[in-house]
Amino acid sequence: MLRRLFLAIVAATFATHTTAQQISKEELVFLTPDWKGERFDDGRPKVPDDILERMKSVSIEEAWAVMKNAGYLYQVAEDWKLINPDSVLVGRAVTATFMPGRPDVWKAIDDRGKAQGKRGQNTWPVDLLVQGDVYVADQFGAKKNGPTIGDNVGNAIYAKSGNGIVYDGALRDVEGLMEIGGFTSFYTSYDPSHHNPRGDLNTMIVGINQPTRIRTVTVMPGDVVLGKLGVVVFIPPHLAEKVVTTSEIVRLRDMFGHQRLREGTYTAGQIDTRWSDEIEKDFSKWLNDHIDELPVPKEQIQEILKNRTW
Length: 310
Description:
By secondary structure, the protein is of the alpha/beta class. The protein is built from eleven helices and eleven strands. The chain starts with a helix and ends with a helix.
């Protein structure tokens, strides 16, 4: 009897901390076993803020190369409409999955949400956002009567996350969304309609912070989103630091190589192939001499120098 009472209390406590349609902490930890760092209370991997800041300078090609070499071949999603096309979107993914509405399933989901004090299924994932997150939604490409985000929800998303969205579906109120200064976003289409007009069941939410699909990419909660130049890549959290450090090394080597080519110190053939020991030693000296001037944090350059043998 006491054991049953204890289990009931645990279940009730867990329910109060779990959003309708949200994956359990245990399952999320199970599905992200390669992440060994800090996690949010719900189990979502928490890539450090400094990695996110440094990620903004990473090119799509650099991120793609690191992931490809690690065996992640389908992490790139292309062909988006853009809000703030000259800006970069970086953050930790909070995922949402919608499907076409079906009355019996919609009602079951909605009733459970209402029992937890929630209204409006399109806002449930928004409630979970924190600063540095990116709202990533599979809206199954829905257009007419499909948009679950307009300028009201967009403002709520930006207030909570400081970021925009990756949204595989139609947005409404795009002009209003463009007025939100930092709402850098990637979306599929535009339609002036709204989801569930007059009670019609056009969309329903079937997953929050669960694995979702964006185009040909499987996206996990906590993946690092990098969006620029009309392309979005989703970086598994355990690869985020490697992507950043690899990018920084490539950036520094390119700067050095281009400078030495302009100076006529080396030929294109010498720079465009495996560097000789002489060039590697010159590169190490160049890093040390210019450590306070380079576009990579000083401590990161010191780490690079510490690990070099030339």
